[in-house]
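pasting for the record
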Amino acid sequence: MGVEIRVEGLTKSFHGQVVWRDVTLTIPAGEISVMLGPSGTGKSVFLKCLVGLLKPDRGHIYVDGHDIATCGERELYAVRKRFGVLFQDGALFGSMSVYDNVAFPLREHTRLSEREIRSIVMEKIELVGLLGSERKLPSEISGGMRKRAGLARALVLDPEIMLFDEPDSGLDPVRTAYLNQLIVDLNQQTGATFLIVTHDVNTARTVPDNIGLLYHQHLAMFGPREMCLCSEEPVVRQFLNAQRIGPIGMAEEKDADELAAEAASSAELPPLPPIPLQLQPSNGLPRPSQRPPGQWCAEHGVTPPPGSFQSTTPTFPPVTAHQTGGGPS
């Protein structure tokens, strides 16, 4: 099962340049959360701080009583084994086959026999649809397949926390849809805590239980999906609905002249689009943190946009090795 991650007053800078300051949030145990933000706002830096690859300037990151931001190397090493991380490019060892890449954490961190390792590795390889490609080198498979191989490796120690750094970058919409379904299915099967960094607005609107947005050196918002998709806060509304009107410009933040010109034009914001239903596990069972559609809105007296929570998107069948194992992606 997953564990809660509690972040308090986290601040990070490089050479005097602040990335973000005083970030405070709680990532609920066992749920899927998404972290959004314009390019350059420090989303990947945030993930690296969570897993202890970077030390923040100030603040705390509590995982089951352990403060990753301040603990020693021995304690950090033990806590890291509770994480699985899927990096943007898969971060595979180029000289190792897919099989050996996935087996690497088991050989490094356990005393399992090669027979036991093979059973676990092949289970994870099948889970991500790569059966038949296990003996290939990373250079011999496509970018999408390398991502899935990286995902299999991240899952091989059955982590309680999974971090995904832009898993959909470089993927076409169809492969992104299959990957999103796989993430939802894995969350249901493992009960682990998932945090996804992404730029894909459709992913952010349909996959998570919670949404966060980093912008202009701070955390603009973090909370339940429905709260964020109903938000009238300008930067949250603009980003989640892919609108040009708002404080975000081509170079992250619009200057005063741009904002003044926008206000003078009396341009009206388009209405908020309907809130879609959450993507459901392909086996038909409820998500671990399933809530009735519209529950947050009803509890907080918020009227959702017209047409919200209506089934308008098709469901996807389970991802299988036959469907994804050898084709390009």
